[in-house]
Design goal:
Layout (H helix, E strand, L loop, with lengths): L13 H15 L1 E3 H8 L3 H13 L4 E3 L2 E3 L10 H6 L2 H12 L7 E4 L3 H13 L5 E5 L2 H7 L5 E5 L3 E3 L4 E3 L4 H4 L4 E6 L3 E3 L3 E4 L2 H13 E7 L11 E4 L6 E4 L5 H9 L3 E5 L7 E4 L6
Parallel strand pairs: 4-5, 4-9, 5-6, 9-12, 12-14, 14-15
Antiparallel strand pairs: 1-3, 2-3, 7-8, 10-11, 11-13, 15-16
Helix pairs in contact: 1-3, 2-3, 5-6, 6-7
């Protein structure tokens, strides 16, 4: 490592140590837990806790045995890494979105990590009798397969290991045969002007099919996605029925969505299961 972490005096405060760790990872692109523990004179357990905090702040990405830099130019992070980011927010968003699903419906869940949290809440919410879930997510299909009262339809196509998803035009045929009531889609970016966007065109293409097939379309996006534009738009803002997000979403954008007649369900604090539905005409 080029940074002189060893020069940091003993007894350094945790916040200062974490800042030094973030700089080391940034300068070197990666760092190992064992090296960091030796440099700072603390245990590996302490370093892992530091990395967990830094990952929550999007300063680093934890890997097996260490951490790497997020890198603004990375087109897509591996699924298991993205799943850990904003875990509390996604848990709350997943619970709120699952609450919008009724038995007997046919719904679409994309291959986003937030959609996986929706699937987990659906699985444990109640006894289902006739819920159909259409997805291109290998993880979601595996999560829900065989659950009583649920039918899982997996879209066909090419497997993308980065997102554990299936992409390509082969999946479009399902949407010509099934009436879809609701689609829940995540995004890499969300702005009023560009709508929902994804980092990869292949993912955006299958999400366009999901959006076009559904009567109602709900965005499931934590606050880190707001105000960002990824390379491929797949859903215009005016196509949205509603948005599920957390309390960190920018107030100006939330207000603009309400003015457009789009429902916004906000979580007051990360991890809260109770939400306020800020539809037009609904009290905050």
């Amino acid at each position: 490592m080029t940074a002189k972490a060893a020069d940091v005096p003993d007894g350094v405060f945790a916040r200062e140590r974490q800042e030094q760790i973030a700089r080391i990872v940034e300068e070197n692109g990666r760092a190992r837990v064992t090296d960091l523990a030796g440099s700072f004179g603390v245990s590996a357990v302490t370093i892992r806790k530091d990395l967990l905090i830094l990952e929550g702040k999007r300063r680093v990405i934890r890997t097996h045995g260490g951490a790497i830099t997020p890198g603004d130019n990375r087109p897509e992070l591996a699924f298991e890494i993205r799943e850990r980011l904003q875990r509390e927010e996604k848990t709350g968003i997943g619970a709120a979105a699952a609450g919008r699903v009724s038995d007997g419906e046919s719904i679409v869940l994309d291959a986003s990590t937030t959609a996986l949290y929706i699937a987990r809440h659906l699985k444990h919410r109640e006894a289902w009798h006739g819920l159909t879930v259409i997805t291109n997510s290998i993880r979601i299909a595996s999560e829900l397969a065989g659950h009583p009262g649920m039918t899982v339809l997996m879209l066909g196509g090419r497997v993308r290991w980065e997102a554990l998803s299936v992409v390509g035009p082969l999946g479009d045929g399902v949407f010509r045969r099934v009436n879809v009531q609701k689609a829940f889609v995540g995004a890499a970016g969300f702005t009023i002007e560009a709508g929902l966007s994804d980092a990869m065109e292949e993912e955006a293409q299958i999400k366009r099919s999901m959006v076009n097939a559904a009567r109602e379309v709900y965005a499931v996006v934590d606050h880190t996605k707001w105000g960002r534009i990824a390379s491929a738009t797949f859903c215009r803002t005016d196509r949205l029925t509603g948005v599920f997000t957390d309390g960190g979403a920018p107030a100006g954008m939330v207000a603009a969505l309400r003015d457009m007649g789009i429902q916004v369900t906000e979580l007051g604090q990360p991890g809260q299961a109770d939400v306020a539905d800020h539809s037009p005409g609904t009290a905050s």
